Amino acid sequence: MSVPPSEISTTPNAFRLEGSSRRYDQIVALAPTTLTIARGERVALVGPSGSGKTTLLSLLNATVTASSGSVEISGADIAQLSPRGLRAVRSQIATIPQHLGLVPNLRVWQNVATGRIGGRGLLGGLRDLFLLPKAALAEIHHLLDRVGIEEKLYARTSQLSGGQQQRVAVARALFQNPQAILADEPVSSVDPARAASLVELLCELAAERGLTLVMSLHNLELARTHFPRLIGLRGGRIQFDQTPAELDAAAFEKLYDLGEKEMLRDG
Ligand SMILES: Nc1ncnc2c1ncn2[C@@H]1O[C@H](COP(=O)(O)OP(=O)(O)O)[C@@H](O)[C@H]1O
Ligand SMILES: [Mg+2]
Q1: Mutate to test the pocket of ligand 1, among 33, 46, 49, 55 (most ligand atoms within 8 A of CB)
Q2: 185 CA closest ligand 1 atom index
Q3: For 21-38, how does the pLDDT look when each residue is reduced to its tens digit (9 = 90+)?
Q4: What is the Å distance from ligand 1's center to 179 Cα?
Q5: Which of 45, 81, 93, 157 is the most exposed place for a label (fewest CB within 10 A)?
Q6: What is the pTM of this model?
């Protein structure tokens, strides 16, 4: 089966790293890495603490620059972009950071509204936090319904449970209207049942909207059951990049044997 050339040129990769590395002084957080993630792909990053998962995600959302090599996002080499071009590329990527990054004193709808600040410019964005257009509020209401916390629209964010706050962070990511979602251990602080339901929700939403999803996960079983592609990192290097079916127990053991033992007990 051949793919017409027009298909190829109009569907650039979501992400492409070419020999990309990141150092912090003497520490190699990520060794030179070459990696392609296609549009709409779902990828789980697994590996012990300190293996470079967050660093890799930070290269993918261009919040950290590579110490060597290149990073392409949607076909654009980010080192070649103007500040404005870089802002535009970043606004296509929604990141759910490990500690969610919600403002506890704001109402739920206001935290969701911050998803668009980057693309709106700071002033317009801040104004929206207080005087949101009706259509945008309706959209937020709809998103909260989709993530299962519709009734929390006007609640103070600090009064929500951990699991509900994760859903606020998911709604905020969606409100950004991204092409990709990067989630950094989004379920590390909740019980296994809640963790599974949040991972399922993110996978469903990504499939529904054709979004690329890259998620770092502590829980190997969740990664294996929900992601068609698993990338294992250790010491800043990719140890494997496989489907769950290809991956055997030995690969996991090798990934973790010098890492933290509690990782294997987790979840
Ligand atoms: N801002 C930083 N300054 C110094 N060292 C860092 C920084 N960020 C990460 N590192 C180091 O890089 C390595 C990889 O870290 P990280 O990407 O956070 O791993 P993970 O997310 O898998 O736990 C670790 O040794 C960590 O200490
Ligand atoms: Mg991390």
Answers
A1: 55
A2: 21
A3: 999 999 999 999 999 999
A4: 26
A5: 81
A6: 0.90
